[in-house]
Amino acid sequence: MTNTLYDALIAPHRSNDSPFLITDSGNTVSFADFVRRAAQIAHALQKNGVTPGDRVVVRAPKVSETLALYAATIQVGAIYLPLNNAYTAEELTYFINDASPTVFVCEDCDVDAMTPICDGAGAKILTLNADGSGTLTDAADGQSTDFETVSRGPDDLAALLYTSGTTGRSKGAMLSHKNLLSNAQALTELWGITSADRLIHALPIFHTHGLFVAMNTSLLAGTQVRFMGKFDLDMIFDEIPKSTLMMGVPTFYTRMLGDDRLTKDLVKGMRLFVSGSAPLLEETHEAFEARTGQRILERYGMTETNMIASNPYDGARIAGTVGFPIGNAEVQVTDPDNGNPLPAGDIGMIEVRGDNVFKGYWNMPEKTKEELRDNGFFITGDLGVLDDEGRLSIVGRAKDLIISGGYNIYPKEIEDVLNEAPGVVESAVFGVPHPDFGEAVVAAMVMECRQADDAPLKDFIAPKLARFKQPKTFVFLDELPRNTMGKVQKNILRDQHGR
Question: pTM of the full predicted structure?
Answer without folding.
Answer: 0.86
